[in-house]
Amino acid sequence: MLILGCLVGVTVTVVCIRALYPLAGRLNLVDYPGGRKQHAQAKPLIGGLALFIGFTAAMLSLPISLIGYRPFASAGLLLVLMGVFDDMHELSPRARLAGEIVAGLIMTLLGGVSLYHLGNLFFTGDLTLGWFAVPFTIFATVGLINAVNMLDGSDGLAGTLAFVHLGLLVILAWQAHSFVQVRVFLLLMSAVLGFLLYNFPFFKDRPARLFMGDAGSMFLGYALSWFSISLSQLPNGVICSVSILWVLGLTLWDAFRVIIVRLLAGRSPFKPDRNHLHHLLQEAGVMPREICLLMGATSVILGGIGIVGQRMGLSSATLLITYLGGFCFYCFLVHFFLGRDSSVDQEMA
């Protein structure tokens, strides 16, 4: 049944893409070139809506009760609809933030998914957040949604890294014997795969045919947050929270570095620029396909460090120290080899 569900996820996503493609112009779901954008032709923004429908169809094919996933589906639908509206008419940042906070509230209050236990981060025993778990979870969720959105600036990148992150979560869920979650993660991977068939730059002379849009990046960011947090809060601390940080490593590192650079330059951390890793690689002459492969492989390595470290019995504190050390080394490498931090104010109008 799992194989059938994955086939449903890929097939329905592809069918939805084919059905929505000719309608994108009439629905104003099109991303036009200009400004900071690199594509030379208008691209449909239908990938996110298609993969959400594909994932939903795949979930409905599972022979299990989905009552526990109603809050997830409700919040996911909210973000997808908000993302579609944003792609069509451009929502204000405040409206987007409000919607993301509502989705976080649904996760914590209705879904019961919160970061209560952070693990032994300071060699003093398990750190629990108590009442602060709800606002902290919402903050983390909003942050991850926007981190994934920040990746959506190079053909195939956001989908590729989401696919990698989900694959790493499958490994963790399998180790924890959480086989229902394994199924769900694989079904979302199948929908993302259907999207990547049209978005990944397989050939140098064939760019992406469409984009996921805000609907896709917001939903994938939310799904990764929900799945990661729920996995890290399993009974008996089977999966530690810091190993999840490693699994999401490069996506978080890129967002952290860009925000820090903007703040050091006296700019708003939310004001877009071209200082993300994929932008710097583009300016260094790296092709989109190679960017996806390089950043995807790096994400596999980082996630592998977290998974193996946990398997070896390393403490959460040790994993956290090495994670922060790795982030500092990453910032040094980006600055030393790509050297754009000092010119963060460069923007294309």
What does this entry show, briefly?
This protein is an all-alpha fold and 349 residues long.
Give the topology, please.
Layout: H1 2-20, H2 24-27, E1 30-31, E2 43-44, H3 47-60, H4 70-89, H5 93-110, E3 117-119, E4 127-128, H6 133-151, H7 157-175, H8 179-199, H9 213-232, H10 241-247, H11 249-264, H12 277-283, H13 288-311, H14 316-338
Antiparallel strand pairs: 1-2, 3-4
Helix pairs in contact: 1-3, 1-8, 3-4, 3-8, 3-9, 4-5, 4-9, 5-6, 6-9, 6-11, 7-8, 7-9, 7-13, 10-13, 10-14
Q: What this model shows, in words?
A:
The chain is mainly alpha-helical and 349 residues long. The protein has one domain. Helix content is 66%, strand content 3%. It contains 14 helices and 4 strands. A two-stranded antiparallel sheet has the order 1-2. A two-stranded antiparallel sheet has the order 3-4.
